[in-house]
Amino acid sequence: MRIVLLSLILWLPTLVRAQITLQAYRDSVYQRSTRIDYASAELDRSQSELGRAKRGFLPSLSAAGSFTTDLRHTSVGERWGFALQPRVEQTIYAGGAVRAAYRRAQTQAESSSEGLRQTWLEVRYEADVAYWTLSAMQLYVASTEEYVSIVSSLYDVVNERYREGYVAKSDVLQVEARLSEARYALIEIRNDYDVAQHRFYNLLGEEQTSQGGVELGNSILDSMAMPERVGVEELLLRRPDVVRSELSVGIAEQGVKVAKSAFNPRLTASIGSSWQTYSPNAGGRTYLDGALVVGVNVPIFHWRERRYATSSAEAVVRAAEADLSQARRDATLEEADSWSDLTSSRSQIRSSLHNLAIASENLSISTYSYREGQATVLDVLQAQISWIQIYTNAITARFNYAVALSEYMRLTAQQ
User: Fold this and answer.
1) Is residue 281 within 8 Å of 227, Cβ to Cβ?
2) Contacts of residue 173, Cβ cutoff 8 Å, sequence gap at least 6
3) Using CA atoms, how far apart are residues 318 and 1, in angstroms rounded to an integer?
4) What gap in Å lies between CA 144 and CA 138, rounded to an integer?
């Protein structure tokens, strides 16, 4: 009866909702993820750089001042003097450097935003894997404990029949060996469960606070709908890494303009004034003066430096274009592989549930037949092995589907 009930768990979704749901666990991991903190800091930095680049279109105000005093006094005037010279300067044309630098900073900010989105997807996937692993390990522990209980019950029956003289000592030893193996497997699976809990808490940035098991609000036994497949064009528009590769091409192209601009003419205009004492300073009198200055800088000959700088920047563009092409290929391949894993694991669930029903019935019949003297202990042992293997396969299939679904959501950048 216990075998039937344990098998039915895999057929029906869990009815009891406990403390930590998958979404609540994700939210907690998001808040405490150092990877997200790092990506957010990178986004803040790039946005600050964008604001800095925007200042290049605006005039600048600067001031210079000086105060002097003579070490030797003369009768001509005062020993001290000062000058204060404020100036407003505007770059009229910088060879395209200002605009190119601004557009490059703008593209880098967009790339950092996509980087943050990519990090969120990866952290969500890590959280899902940790959550589903713990859920699977709980089922593995329960099934192994049940298996130990089944073998232990069989051992009691065989040992009793041996004392009554109905079976040989070899039957007792075979069952005892199987019981020892089952207990050894239980020790290993409990250790794996502890390791799964460690990872579960590690993503939260905290230590395990209790020795008991974690109560999960979701399980790999829950019904998870099969998603619709994402088309190639939509996939490439969604993937943050592909979008970042496209933005990298734009950044490299702006880098070419920045490299060329250093060798283009520059035109600036400034308005300045000065408030200073006369020289020599007679009586501490001061005067105010002003000037309008237009500056032009025309590079003429730099030993082909412009050509080399441009060639280097254009090589960066070609490399970025190659990375973009490879990123698109990788995204298409990853989606195809992930979809295959998803459909395969879905099919394995149906197959494993059918096999489990057969194995459970076979185990029940074999155990009953042995009690009635119509089967050997080897028949029962074989039925037990078959049942635990198929039951484990059923859990594994559920786990594989849950992880495959999370991976497909990550690879297709679905929320």
Assistant:
1) no
2) none
3) 68
4) 10
d(CA 350, CA 226): 13
∠ Cα 219 7 367 (to 5°): 155
Phi first, then psi: give them for residue 14, nearest 5 degrees. -65, 140
What pLDDT was estimated at residue 76? 66
Instruction: Let me know: does 92 contact 268? Beta carbons within 8 Å.
Output: yes
How much is the pTM? 0.84
Q: Residue 61: helix, strand or coil by DSSP?
A: strand
DSSP states of 27-40: HHHHHH-HHHHHHH
- Chain centre distance of CA 129: 12
3-state SS, residue 47: helix
> CA 222 to CA 309: how far, in whole Å?
60
The whole-angstrom separation of Cα 93 and Cα 294 is 12
Tell me the per-residue pLDDT of 179-236, one tens digit each, with 9 for 90 and over: 899 899 999 999 999 999 999 999 988 776 556 667 899 999 888 889 999 999 999 9
Residues 140/148, Cβ–Cβ less than 8 Å = no
Residues 379-404 pLDDT 10s: 777 787 888 888 888 899 999 999 99
Beta bridge partners of 159: none
φ/ψ of 269, rounded to 5, equals -135, 140
**Segments in 262-376 forming alpha helices (H):** 305-371
**Structure tokens of 294?**
């237009």
Hey, what are 156's tokens? 């009691």
pLDDT tens column, 46-93: 999 999 998 888 898 999 999 888 777 666 677 788 889 999 988 888
The alpha helices in 164-272, defined as continuous H runs, are 169-202, 232-238, 240-261
CB 291 within 8 A of CB 272: yes
Q: For residue 229, give the DSSP letter.
A: P
